[in-house]
């Protein structure tokens, strides 16, 4: 049995590459979620007019990797203290967000965020119910694997 998790952590290319390395993750897809329009394109999302975030959808086997472990990786692969930006990427489409698909995910995400805040980190990450997931264009899927000469850094705090 599998579950689905959806994370917004800036540009989805590096986020997908990181999650694809996790044992128990059986599928990833990058796309758009959290906005008001149907079937948005990359260029529409980048305009900032659709309200969508660049997101990663992760299908995982919870008996092999827990949602809490995925949350730990989520906090590590981007800077969750930034509002509507990651590094040089600026705009609402790059916001830090967890889109939960169940009450259990909501509770785990809120507890995880609360622990970081209690440790003194000014976390800007939004926690929202999952909405429609719109698959990004094919050339965005597994982008870094297809274009290995591009490197990304991971934020850690």
Total of domains: 1
Helix content: 25-40%
CATH class: Alpha Beta
Distance between the termini: 33 Å
Question: Stretches where pLDDT falls below 50 for ≥5 residues?
Answer: none
Oligomeric description of these chains: single chain
General form? globular
The SSE string, one letter per element, is EHEHEHEEEHEEH
Annotated CATH topology: Peptide Methionine Sulfoxide Reductase, Chain A
Name the structural class: alpha+beta
Care to describe what's here?
The chain is of the alpha+beta class and 157 residues long. The chain has a single domain (3-146), classed as Peptide Methionine Sulfoxide Reductase, Chain A, CATH 3.30.1060. It has 5 helices and 8 strands, in the order βαβαβαβββαββα. The chain has helices spanning 12-19, 42-46, 67-76, 103-118, 143-146, and strands at residues 3-9, 25-33, 53-60, 85-86, 89-90, 96-100, 126-129, 134-135. The strands form 2 sheets. Strands 7-6-1-3-2-8 form a 6-stranded mixed sheet, with helices on one face. α3 packs across α4. The longest helix is centred in the last third of the chain and has 16 residues, at 103-118. The protein is globular. The N and C termini lie far apart (33 Å). The model has no long low-confidence stretch (mean pLDDT 93).
